């Protein structure tokens, strides 16, 4: 997605968008090593365009609210994660609709976020960073789920993860995102492809219902009322 972007489906609800302008995937889901073992989290390095419109790495790169949302929780000590919940139901890329929750890690400003603050879709919601257990690599760690926030747990591999989280590519559309590096090469050197998709039939603003004139039979009520008022003057 782009800065300030709003995207709505034909039902008038916001579409859940991937929150960066450029996708540069550095760690995928369910990796057998590192910190994503048995979970659906993905890590993305910040990137922006230079003056020649070439993709370059950017530290403290902004990312945007994928839907209008409210901060509902912050959990974890070594790598605090902020959890944003949709204010209304949103459209998921798999064709379903419902409330959504997304979590971000490693923003260097994470401890200054306040529960209850809100963002409109397209507003800056955070920046890539190194806060917590990031191995010193500036990036954003993202987990997301359908439904409202209901906590986190430690899986059988000892990794803490959002309860109910799932594959990101089943939730968010990559409209207007440059898929610069949308795959992951795992510890065995195997390239893992992810099934990213875009929303169809989207627009920058909610669809406006057609304006229909009030009619009762074939009688021109508006014209008659004007003549009636004029006759009383």
Can you describe what's shown?
- It is a single chain.
- The chain is mainly beta and 233 residues long.
- It has one domain (22-193): Glucose Permease (Domain IIA) (Distorted Sandwich).
- The chain is 5% helix and 30% strand.
- Strand 8 (90-91) and strand 9 form a beta hairpin.
- It is globular, with a radius of gyration of 22 Å.
- The protein starts with 21 loop residues before the first strand and ends with a helix.
Topology readout:
Elements lengths: L21 E6 L14 E3 L2 E3 L5 E3 L4 E3 L4 E7 L5 E6 L3 E2 L5 E2 L1 E6 L12 E2 L4 E4 L12 E7 L5 E3 L5 E3 L15 E4 L1 E3 L5 E3 L27 H12 L1
Parallel strand pairs: 1-16
Antiparallel strand pairs: 1-2, 2-13, 3-4, 5-12, 6-7, 6-11, 7-10, 8-9, 10-13, 14-15, 17-18
Average pLDDT level: 88
How many domain modules? 1
Would you tell me the structural class of the helices and strands?
A: mainly beta
Radius of gyration (CA) equals 22 Å
CATH topology type: Glucose Permease (Domain IIA)
Question: Which of globular, elongated, flat, extended, rod-shaped describes the shape?
Answer: globular
Strand order of the largest sheet: 11-6-7-10-13-2-1-16
Low-confidence stretches: 207-233
- Strand-residue fraction? 25-35%
Q: What about the largest sheet?
A: 8 strands, mixed
Helix and strand element order: EEEEEEEEEEEEEEEEEEH
Total helix count?
A: 1
> CATH top level?
Mainly Beta
Number of strands: 18
Proportion of helical residues: under 10%
CATH homologous superfamily grouping = Glucose Permease (Domain IIA)
């Amino acid at each position: 997605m782009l800065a300030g972007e709003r995207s709505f489906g034909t039902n008038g609800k916001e579409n859940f968008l991937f929150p960066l302008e450029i996708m540069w995937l550095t760690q995928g889901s369910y990796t057998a090593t590192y910190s994503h073992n048995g979970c659906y989290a993905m890590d993305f390095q910040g990137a922006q365009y230079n003056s020649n419109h070439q993709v370059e790495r950017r530290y403290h790169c902004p990312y945007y609210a994928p839907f209008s949302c409210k901060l509902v929780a912050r959990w974890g000590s070594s790598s605090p994660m902020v959890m944003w919940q949709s204010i209304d139901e949103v459209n998921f890329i798999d064709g379903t609709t419902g409330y959504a929750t997304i979590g971000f890690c490693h923003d260097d400003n994470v401890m200054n976020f306040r529960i209850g603050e809100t963002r409109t879709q397209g507003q800056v919601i955070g920046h890539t960073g190194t806060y917590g257990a990031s191995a010193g690599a500036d990036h954003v760690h993202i987990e997301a789920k359908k439904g409202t926030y209901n906590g986190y747990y430690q899986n059988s591999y000892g990794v803490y993860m959002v309860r109910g989280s799932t594959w990101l590519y089943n939730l968010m559309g990559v409209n207007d995102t440059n898929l610069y590096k949308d795959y992951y090469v795992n510890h065995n050197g195997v390239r893992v492809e992810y099934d990213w998709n875009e929303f169809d039939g989207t627009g920058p603003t909610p669809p406006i219902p057609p304006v229909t004139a009030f009619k009762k039979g074939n009688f021109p009520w508006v014209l008659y009322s004007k003549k009636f008022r004029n006759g009383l003057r």
